[in-house]
Design goal:
Layout: E1 3-7, H1 18-26, E2 29-32, E3 48-51, H2 53-58, H3 62-77, E4 82-86, H4 95-107, E5 111-114, H5 120-127, E6 136-139, H6 140-144, E7 157-160, H7 165-175, E8 184-189, E9 197-202, E10 216-220, H8 229-240, H9 246-250, H10 257-272, H11 276-299, H12 305-318, H13 321-324, H14 333-350, H15 368-381, H16 389-405, H17 409-429, H18 435-455, H19 466-478
Parallel strand pairs: 1-4, 1-5, 2-3, 2-4, 6-7
Antiparallel strand pairs: 7-10, 8-9, 8-10
Helix pairs in contact: 3-4, 8-11, 10-11, 15-17, 16-17, 18-19
Protein backbone atom coordinates (compact mmCIF):
# COMPACT_ATOMS: atom_id res chain seq x y z
CA UNK A 1 0.00 0.00 0.00
CA UNK A 2 1.61 3.29 -1.08
CA UNK A 3 2.08 6.31 1.13
CA UNK A 4 1.22 9.32 -1.03
CA UNK A 5 2.86 12.62 -0.19
CA UNK A 6 1.12 15.69 -1.60
CA UNK A 7 2.44 19.23 -1.94
CA UNK A 8 -0.22 21.83 -1.06
CA UNK A 9 1.55 24.71 -2.76
CA UNK A 10 2.53 28.04 -1.19
CA UNK A 11 -0.89 29.07 0.08
CA UNK A 12 -3.57 30.00 -2.43
CA UNK A 13 -5.94 27.15 -3.28
CA UNK A 14 -5.66 28.12 -6.96
CA UNK A 15 -2.00 27.07 -6.83
CA UNK A 16 -2.87 23.51 -5.84
CA UNK A 17 -2.06 21.22 -8.77
CA UNK A 18 -4.79 19.19 -10.44
CA UNK A 19 -2.97 15.97 -9.53
CA UNK A 20 -2.89 17.02 -5.87
CA UNK A 21 -6.60 17.92 -5.89
CA UNK A 22 -7.58 14.57 -7.43
CA UNK A 23 -5.48 12.70 -4.89
CA UNK A 24 -7.06 14.53 -1.97
CA UNK A 25 -10.52 14.21 -3.47
CA UNK A 26 -10.31 10.41 -3.54
CA UNK A 27 -8.41 9.92 -0.27
CA UNK A 28 -10.10 8.51 2.80
CA UNK A 29 -7.41 9.48 5.33
CA UNK A 30 -5.26 12.62 5.08
CA UNK A 31 -2.53 13.62 7.50
CA UNK A 32 -1.57 17.30 7.52
CA UNK A 33 1.83 18.29 8.84
CA UNK A 34 0.09 21.47 9.89
CA UNK A 35 -3.37 22.92 9.39
CA UNK A 36 -1.82 26.41 9.54
CA UNK A 37 -1.91 26.65 5.78
CA UNK A 38 -4.23 29.01 3.87
CA UNK A 39 -5.59 26.38 1.47
CA UNK A 40 -6.53 23.81 4.14
CA UNK A 41 -10.10 25.16 4.67
CA UNK A 42 -10.72 24.80 0.93
CA UNK A 43 -9.59 21.18 0.51
CA UNK A 44 -12.07 18.40 -0.42
CA UNK A 45 -14.12 17.40 2.64
CA UNK A 46 -14.68 13.69 2.03
CA UNK A 47 -11.52 12.51 3.85
CA UNK A 48 -10.80 12.18 7.56
CA UNK A 49 -8.16 14.77 8.40
CA UNK A 50 -5.48 14.47 11.09
CA UNK A 51 -2.93 17.14 11.98
CA UNK A 52 0.41 17.02 13.76
CA UNK A 53 0.20 20.55 15.16
CA UNK A 54 -0.06 19.24 18.71
CA UNK A 55 3.42 17.74 18.44
CA UNK A 56 4.89 21.20 17.96
CA UNK A 57 3.31 22.23 21.27
CA UNK A 58 4.34 19.17 23.30
CA UNK A 59 7.86 18.47 21.98
CA UNK A 60 10.67 20.94 22.49
CA UNK A 61 13.00 20.17 19.53
CA UNK A 62 12.03 20.11 15.86
CA UNK A 63 14.06 16.94 15.43
CA UNK A 64 11.79 15.24 17.95
CA UNK A 65 8.70 16.52 16.13
CA UNK A 66 9.95 15.24 12.76
CA UNK A 67 10.86 11.87 14.27
CA UNK A 68 7.41 11.51 15.85
CA UNK A 69 5.63 12.43 12.60
CA UNK A 70 7.71 9.92 10.65
CA UNK A 71 7.07 7.16 13.17
CA UNK A 72 3.30 7.71 13.19
CA UNK A 73 3.02 7.88 9.39
CA UNK A 74 5.07 4.71 8.85
CA UNK A 75 2.91 2.88 11.39
CA UNK A 76 -0.29 4.10 9.71
CA UNK A 77 0.97 3.19 6.22
CA UNK A 78 1.34 -0.45 7.25
CA UNK A 79 -2.43 -0.70 7.71
CA UNK A 80 -4.08 1.62 5.20
CA UNK A 81 -3.66 3.84 2.17
CA UNK A 82 -2.90 7.29 3.52
CA UNK A 83 -2.08 10.71 2.14
CA UNK A 84 0.38 13.03 3.82
CA UNK A 85 -0.06 16.69 2.81
CA UNK A 86 2.68 19.26 3.37
CA UNK A 87 3.01 22.97 2.54
CA UNK A 88 4.73 23.88 -0.74
CA UNK A 89 6.54 21.05 -2.47
CA UNK A 90 7.33 17.81 -0.59
CA UNK A 91 11.02 18.03 -1.47
CA UNK A 92 11.63 21.70 -0.70
CA UNK A 93 12.26 22.42 2.97
CA UNK A 94 10.35 19.37 4.27
CA UNK A 95 12.50 17.40 6.71
CA UNK A 96 9.74 14.93 7.44
CA UNK A 97 9.62 13.88 3.78
CA UNK A 98 13.32 13.05 3.55
CA UNK A 99 12.98 11.10 6.80
CA UNK A 100 9.96 9.27 5.40
CA UNK A 101 11.81 8.32 2.23
CA UNK A 102 14.61 6.76 4.27
CA UNK A 103 12.26 4.93 6.67
CA UNK A 104 9.92 3.73 3.95
CA UNK A 105 12.77 2.08 2.09
CA UNK A 106 13.72 0.11 5.20
CA UNK A 107 10.06 -0.84 5.84
CA UNK A 108 9.35 -1.77 2.19
CA UNK A 109 6.65 0.88 1.96
CA UNK A 110 6.04 2.39 -1.45
CA UNK A 111 6.21 6.19 -1.57
CA UNK A 112 4.49 8.28 -4.25
CA UNK A 113 5.14 12.01 -4.40
CA UNK A 114 2.73 14.54 -5.90
CA UNK A 115 4.78 17.67 -6.45
CA UNK A 116 3.46 21.12 -5.71
CA UNK A 117 4.52 24.70 -6.20
CA UNK A 118 7.06 25.47 -3.51
CA UNK A 119 7.48 28.76 -1.64
CA UNK A 120 10.38 29.55 -3.99
CA UNK A 121 8.38 30.34 -7.14
CA UNK A 122 6.25 33.09 -5.60
CA UNK A 123 9.36 34.49 -3.93
CA UNK A 124 10.99 34.85 -7.33
CA UNK A 125 7.95 36.72 -8.59
CA UNK A 126 7.94 39.17 -5.69
CA UNK A 127 11.69 39.76 -5.96
CA UNK A 128 11.82 39.87 -9.75
CA UNK A 129 14.81 37.55 -10.01
CA UNK A 130 15.77 34.40 -11.93
CA UNK A 131 16.72 31.41 -9.78
CA UNK A 132 19.28 30.26 -12.35
CA UNK A 133 21.37 33.39 -11.77
CA UNK A 134 23.15 31.55 -8.95
CA UNK A 135 20.40 31.81 -6.31
CA UNK A 136 21.37 29.99 -3.12
CA UNK A 137 18.62 28.56 -0.90
CA UNK A 138 19.30 27.81 2.75
CA UNK A 139 17.27 26.89 5.83
CA UNK A 140 17.06 29.71 8.36
CA UNK A 141 17.13 27.21 11.22
CA UNK A 142 20.47 25.94 9.95
CA UNK A 143 21.89 29.46 9.76
CA UNK A 144 20.59 30.25 13.23
CA UNK A 145 22.77 27.47 14.69
CA UNK A 146 25.95 28.51 12.85
CA UNK A 147 28.61 31.14 13.46
CA UNK A 148 29.53 31.82 9.82
CA UNK A 149 27.15 31.40 6.85
CA UNK A 150 27.96 28.62 4.33
CA UNK A 151 27.29 31.01 1.45
CA UNK A 152 29.07 32.35 -1.61
CA UNK A 153 28.61 36.13 -1.25
CA UNK A 154 29.04 36.63 -5.00
CA UNK A 155 25.52 35.24 -5.46
CA UNK A 156 22.10 36.09 -4.00
CA UNK A 157 20.59 33.98 -1.23
CA UNK A 158 17.08 33.07 -0.13
CA UNK A 159 16.77 32.11 3.54
CA UNK A 160 13.62 30.13 4.33
CA UNK A 161 11.84 29.47 7.64
CA UNK A 162 12.69 32.76 9.33
CA UNK A 163 9.43 32.27 11.18
CA UNK A 164 10.07 34.20 14.42
CA UNK A 165 11.97 37.21 15.68
CA UNK A 166 14.21 34.91 17.74
CA UNK A 167 15.18 32.96 14.62
CA UNK A 168 15.68 36.23 12.73
CA UNK A 169 18.00 37.47 15.48
CA UNK A 170 20.18 34.35 15.34
CA UNK A 171 20.20 34.39 11.53
CA UNK A 172 21.23 38.05 11.58
CA UNK A 173 24.19 37.40 13.88
CA UNK A 174 25.42 34.58 11.66
CA UNK A 175 25.09 36.64 8.47
CA UNK A 176 26.86 39.62 10.04
CA UNK A 177 30.02 37.51 10.16
CA UNK A 178 30.11 37.91 6.36
CA UNK A 179 27.93 40.88 5.42
CA UNK A 180 28.07 44.49 6.71
CA UNK A 181 25.59 45.31 9.48
CA UNK A 182 23.76 47.79 7.24
CA UNK A 183 23.71 45.56 4.15
CA UNK A 184 20.31 46.01 2.37
CA UNK A 185 18.09 42.91 2.53
CA UNK A 186 14.40 42.07 2.13
CA UNK A 187 11.92 40.13 4.25
CA UNK A 188 9.21 38.43 2.17
CA UNK A 189 6.04 37.75 4.13
CA UNK A 190 3.27 35.40 3.03
CA UNK A 191 4.62 34.60 -0.43
CA UNK A 192 1.99 32.75 -2.43
CA UNK A 193 -0.91 34.24 -0.47
CA UNK A 194 -3.06 37.28 -1.21
CA UNK A 195 -1.45 39.12 1.74
CA UNK A 196 2.12 38.77 0.44
CA UNK A 197 4.43 41.78 0.68
CA UNK A 198 8.13 42.62 0.69
CA UNK A 199 9.77 44.60 3.49
CA UNK A 200 13.16 46.20 2.74
CA UNK A 201 15.60 47.11 5.51
CA UNK A 202 19.26 46.90 6.59
CA UNK A 203 20.40 43.50 7.85
CA UNK A 204 20.74 44.59 11.48
CA UNK A 205 17.01 45.46 11.65
CA UNK A 206 15.45 42.19 10.47
CA UNK A 207 14.61 40.91 13.95
CA UNK A 208 12.76 44.16 14.68
CA UNK A 209 10.10 43.54 12.05
CA UNK A 210 6.60 43.28 13.49
CA UNK A 211 5.40 41.19 10.53
CA UNK A 212 7.53 38.04 10.95
CA UNK A 213 5.50 34.83 11.06
CA UNK A 214 5.67 31.23 9.84
CA UNK A 215 5.48 32.40 6.20
CA UNK A 216 8.49 34.77 6.36
CA UNK A 217 11.69 34.37 4.35
CA UNK A 218 14.77 36.55 3.92
CA UNK A 219 16.39 37.63 0.65
CA UNK A 220 20.06 38.69 0.54
CA UNK A 221 21.16 40.20 -2.77
CA UNK A 222 24.68 39.73 -4.07
CA UNK A 223 27.05 42.52 -2.96
CA UNK A 224 29.68 43.96 -5.27
CA UNK A 225 31.64 41.40 -7.32
CA UNK A 226 34.78 39.59 -6.23
CA UNK A 227 33.88 39.12 -2.58
CA UNK A 228 34.10 35.33 -2.46
CA UNK A 229 36.88 32.81 -2.04
CA UNK A 230 35.57 31.05 -5.14
CA UNK A 231 36.11 34.20 -7.23
CA UNK A 232 39.65 34.40 -5.92
CA UNK A 233 40.34 30.81 -6.99
CA UNK A 234 38.84 31.50 -10.44
CA UNK A 235 41.07 34.55 -10.95
CA UNK A 236 44.22 32.65 -9.93
CA UNK A 237 43.29 29.67 -12.14
CA UNK A 238 42.72 32.11 -15.03
CA UNK A 239 46.13 33.70 -14.46
CA UNK A 240 47.71 30.25 -14.67
CA UNK A 241 45.69 29.21 -17.74
CA UNK A 242 47.24 29.14 -21.27
CA UNK A 243 45.61 32.50 -22.05
CA UNK A 244 46.62 33.92 -18.66
CA UNK A 245 49.69 35.80 -17.42
CA UNK A 246 53.17 34.65 -18.60
CA UNK A 247 54.74 35.54 -15.24
CA UNK A 248 52.17 33.63 -13.18
CA UNK A 249 52.32 30.65 -15.52
CA UNK A 250 56.09 30.21 -15.06
CA UNK A 251 55.99 30.19 -11.23
CA UNK A 252 56.73 27.08 -9.18
CA UNK A 253 56.56 26.25 -5.48
CA UNK A 254 60.31 26.98 -5.28
CA UNK A 255 60.25 30.27 -7.20
CA UNK A 256 57.48 31.63 -4.95
CA UNK A 257 59.38 31.04 -1.68
CA UNK A 258 60.81 34.58 -1.37
CA UNK A 259 57.41 36.16 -2.04
CA UNK A 260 55.78 34.11 0.71
CA UNK A 261 58.42 35.30 3.18
CA UNK A 262 58.14 38.90 1.97
CA UNK A 263 54.34 39.00 2.16
CA UNK A 264 54.40 37.48 5.66
CA UNK A 265 56.82 40.20 6.76
CA UNK A 266 54.55 42.90 5.33
CA UNK A 267 51.59 41.46 7.26
CA UNK A 268 53.64 41.66 10.45
CA UNK A 269 54.62 45.26 9.66
CA UNK A 270 50.97 46.24 9.30
CA UNK A 271 50.15 44.61 12.65
CA UNK A 272 53.11 46.22 14.39
CA UNK A 273 52.08 49.65 13.07
CA UNK A 274 48.38 49.02 13.84
CA UNK A 275 47.47 49.87 10.24
CA UNK A 276 44.29 47.82 10.04
CA UNK A 277 43.22 48.94 6.57
CA UNK A 278 46.72 48.14 5.36
CA UNK A 279 46.47 44.78 7.12
CA UNK A 280 43.46 43.87 4.96
CA UNK A 281 45.55 44.51 1.84
CA UNK A 282 48.57 42.62 3.12
CA UNK A 283 46.52 39.60 4.22
CA UNK A 284 45.10 39.53 0.69
CA UNK A 285 48.62 39.46 -0.72
CA UNK A 286 49.55 36.64 1.65
CA UNK A 287 46.41 34.71 0.71
CA UNK A 288 47.35 35.20 -2.94
CA UNK A 289 50.53 33.25 -2.29
CA UNK A 290 48.60 30.40 -0.65
CA UNK A 291 46.05 30.15 -3.45
CA UNK A 292 48.76 30.37 -6.10
CA UNK A 293 50.67 27.50 -4.48
CA UNK A 294 47.41 25.53 -4.37
CA UNK A 295 46.66 26.16 -8.05
CA UNK A 296 50.14 24.95 -8.99
CA UNK A 297 49.58 21.83 -6.89
CA UNK A 298 46.19 21.27 -8.55
CA UNK A 299 47.70 21.47 -12.03
CA UNK A 300 50.49 19.07 -11.05
CA UNK A 301 48.06 16.60 -9.46
CA UNK A 302 49.54 17.06 -5.98
CA UNK A 303 46.44 18.20 -4.08
CA UNK A 304 43.35 20.43 -4.35
CA UNK A 305 42.08 23.32 -2.25
CA UNK A 306 39.44 20.98 -0.88
CA UNK A 307 42.24 18.78 0.51
CA UNK A 308 43.75 21.74 2.33
CA UNK A 309 40.40 22.80 3.77
CA UNK A 310 39.36 19.26 4.72
CA UNK A 311 42.64 18.62 6.49
CA UNK A 312 42.74 21.87 8.43
CA UNK A 313 39.03 21.68 9.33
CA UNK A 314 39.22 18.11 10.60
CA UNK A 315 42.46 18.91 12.41
CA UNK A 316 40.89 21.87 14.21
CA UNK A 317 37.89 19.81 15.28
CA UNK A 318 40.07 16.87 16.34
CA UNK A 319 42.40 19.09 18.37
CA UNK A 320 39.56 20.90 20.15
CA UNK A 321 37.74 18.05 21.96
CA UNK A 322 36.65 20.60 24.58
CA UNK A 323 34.60 22.35 21.85
CA UNK A 324 33.50 19.45 19.61
CA UNK A 325 33.66 16.71 22.21
CA UNK A 326 33.26 15.93 25.88
CA UNK A 327 36.70 17.03 27.11
CA UNK A 328 36.53 19.45 30.05
CA UNK A 329 39.37 21.99 30.34
CA UNK A 330 37.71 24.09 33.08
CA UNK A 331 38.42 27.26 31.15
CA UNK A 332 42.18 26.66 31.31
CA UNK A 333 44.18 27.70 28.24
CA UNK A 334 47.16 25.75 29.64
CA UNK A 335 45.06 22.58 29.61
CA UNK A 336 44.07 23.32 26.01
CA UNK A 337 47.75 23.57 25.01
CA UNK A 338 48.62 20.34 26.87
CA UNK A 339 45.77 18.49 25.14
CA UNK A 340 46.85 19.93 21.79
CA UNK A 341 50.38 18.57 22.21
CA UNK A 342 49.14 15.14 23.28
CA UNK A 343 46.78 14.95 20.30
CA UNK A 344 49.62 15.96 17.95
CA UNK A 345 51.79 13.24 19.46
CA UNK A 346 49.05 10.64 18.89
CA UNK A 347 48.57 11.86 15.30
CA UNK A 348 52.27 11.46 14.53
CA UNK A 349 52.27 7.94 15.97
CA UNK A 350 49.18 7.01 13.94
CA UNK A 351 50.81 8.36 10.78
CA UNK A 352 54.06 6.53 11.51
CA UNK A 353 56.01 9.77 11.84
CA UNK A 354 58.87 9.30 14.28
CA UNK A 355 60.97 12.14 15.70
CA UNK A 356 64.52 11.45 16.78
CA UNK A 357 64.55 14.42 19.15
CA UNK A 358 62.07 16.36 21.20
CA UNK A 359 63.39 19.43 19.38
CA UNK A 360 62.47 18.04 15.95
CA UNK A 361 59.47 19.70 14.40
CA UNK A 362 60.69 23.27 14.86
CA UNK A 363 60.67 24.68 11.30
CA UNK A 364 64.18 25.15 9.91
CA UNK A 365 63.24 28.45 8.28
CA UNK A 366 62.31 30.22 11.51
CA UNK A 367 64.49 33.13 12.54
CA UNK A 368 67.34 32.23 14.89
CA UNK A 369 65.59 34.18 17.64
CA UNK A 370 62.36 32.19 17.33
CA UNK A 371 64.25 28.91 16.96
CA UNK A 372 66.03 29.57 20.26
CA UNK A 373 62.70 30.34 21.91
CA UNK A 374 61.05 27.18 20.54
CA UNK A 375 63.99 24.98 21.61
CA UNK A 376 63.99 26.25 25.19
CA UNK A 377 60.19 26.02 25.45
CA UNK A 378 60.21 22.39 24.27
CA UNK A 379 63.05 21.46 26.63
CA UNK A 380 61.27 23.12 29.53
CA UNK A 381 58.24 20.85 29.02
CA UNK A 382 60.27 17.84 30.17
CA UNK A 383 61.86 19.68 33.09
CA UNK A 384 65.11 20.87 31.47
CA UNK A 385 64.72 24.35 32.93
CA UNK A 386 65.53 26.44 35.99
CA UNK A 387 63.37 26.04 39.09
CA UNK A 388 62.43 29.73 39.02
CA UNK A 389 63.33 32.96 37.24
CA UNK A 390 66.23 33.69 39.62
CA UNK A 391 68.08 30.79 38.02
CA UNK A 392 67.90 32.56 34.65
CA UNK A 393 69.07 35.82 36.22
CA UNK A 394 72.05 34.08 37.85
CA UNK A 395 72.92 32.47 34.50
CA UNK A 396 72.75 35.90 32.86
CA UNK A 397 75.25 37.32 35.32
CA UNK A 398 77.49 34.28 34.79
CA UNK A 399 77.48 34.78 31.02
CA UNK A 400 78.27 38.50 31.41
CA UNK A 401 81.23 37.69 33.64
CA UNK A 402 82.52 35.20 31.07
CA UNK A 403 82.24 37.80 28.30
CA UNK A 404 84.29 40.37 30.18
CA UNK A 405 86.80 37.76 31.33
CA UNK A 406 87.44 36.45 27.82
CA UNK A 407 90.30 38.10 25.94
CA UNK A 408 90.18 36.13 22.69
CA UNK A 409 87.90 38.08 20.27
CA UNK A 410 86.42 34.96 18.62
CA UNK A 411 85.71 33.31 21.98
CA UNK A 412 84.20 36.56 23.25
CA UNK A 413 81.78 36.50 20.29
CA UNK A 414 80.74 32.97 21.25
CA UNK A 415 80.17 34.06 24.83
CA UNK A 416 77.97 36.92 23.60
CA UNK A 417 76.01 34.35 21.63
CA UNK A 418 75.48 32.34 24.82
CA UNK A 419 74.27 35.52 26.50
CA UNK A 420 71.74 36.09 23.74
CA UNK A 421 70.43 32.55 24.20
CA UNK A 422 69.99 33.16 27.94
CA UNK A 423 68.17 36.42 27.19
CA UNK A 424 65.67 34.49 25.06
CA UNK A 425 65.15 32.12 28.00
CA UNK A 426 64.60 35.09 30.30
CA UNK A 427 61.94 36.48 27.97
CA UNK A 428 60.19 33.10 28.05
CA UNK A 429 60.19 33.21 31.86
CA UNK A 430 58.69 36.69 31.64
CA UNK A 431 55.82 35.24 29.52
CA UNK A 432 56.93 36.91 26.29
CA UNK A 433 55.57 34.36 23.83
CA UNK A 434 56.85 36.13 20.72
CA UNK A 435 60.36 37.57 21.15
CA UNK A 436 60.43 38.24 17.40
CA UNK A 437 57.61 40.77 17.75
CA UNK A 438 59.37 42.34 20.73
CA UNK A 439 62.52 42.76 18.63
CA UNK A 440 60.54 44.28 15.77
CA UNK A 441 59.04 46.71 18.27
CA UNK A 442 62.49 47.66 19.54
CA UNK A 443 63.73 48.11 15.97
CA UNK A 444 60.76 50.33 15.17
CA UNK A 445 61.48 52.43 18.26
CA UNK A 446 65.09 52.86 17.18
CA UNK A 447 63.88 53.92 13.70
CA UNK A 448 61.50 56.53 15.13
CA UNK A 449 64.09 58.08 17.41
CA UNK A 450 66.84 58.08 14.81
CA UNK A 451 64.41 59.59 12.32
CA UNK A 452 63.73 62.31 14.90
CA UNK A 453 67.45 63.15 14.88
CA UNK A 454 67.41 63.33 11.08
CA UNK A 455 64.40 65.65 10.92
CA UNK A 456 65.39 67.97 13.80
CA UNK A 457 68.95 68.80 12.87
CA UNK A 458 69.99 71.76 10.73
CA UNK A 459 73.24 70.22 9.55
CA UNK A 460 74.30 66.93 7.96
CA UNK A 461 74.53 63.97 10.33
CA UNK A 462 78.18 63.51 9.42
CA UNK A 463 78.93 66.95 10.87
CA UNK A 464 77.11 66.34 14.18
CA UNK A 465 78.86 65.31 17.37
CA UNK A 466 77.70 62.29 19.35
CA UNK A 467 76.57 64.60 22.16
CA UNK A 468 74.39 66.57 19.73
CA UNK A 469 72.86 63.36 18.43
CA UNK A 470 72.26 62.07 21.97
CA UNK A 471 70.51 65.33 22.88
CA UNK A 472 68.08 64.98 19.98
CA UNK A 473 67.65 61.28 20.77
CA UNK A 474 66.63 62.16 24.35
CA UNK A 475 64.27 64.85 23.01
CA UNK A 476 62.54 62.32 20.79
CA UNK A 477 62.36 59.89 23.70
CA UNK A 478 60.76 62.62 25.86
CA UNK A 479 58.08 63.06 23.19
CA UNK A 480 57.16 59.39 23.52
CA UNK A 481 58.86 58.12 20.37
Amino acid sequence: MPLIIVGLGPGNIDDLTLAAWRTLETASTVYLRTDRHPCVPHLPKNATFHTFDSLYETLEAFEDVYAAITEQLIAAAHHANIVYAVPGDPLVGESTVTRLLASAEKENIEIKIINGISFIEPMLKHLGIDALDGLQIVDGLLLAEMHHPPLNPDFPTLVAQVYSRDVASDVKLTLMNQYPDDFPVSLIHGAGTSEAFVEKMPLYEIDRSQHINHLTSLYIPAPERYTSFESFQEIIAHLRAPEGCPWDRKQTHESLRPYLIEETAEVLDAIDNEQWDELADELGDLLLQIVLHTQIATEDGEFYMRDILRRVNTKLIRRHPHVWGSEDVNGSSEKVVANWEEIKKTERATQGKQRDSLLDGVPSNLSALMTAYKYTAKAAKVGFDWADVTGVEDKLREELDEIFAETDPQKKIREIGDLMFVLVNWLRWLKVDDPESLMREINAKFYRRFRYIETHTTKPLTEMTLDEMDALWDAGKAEGL
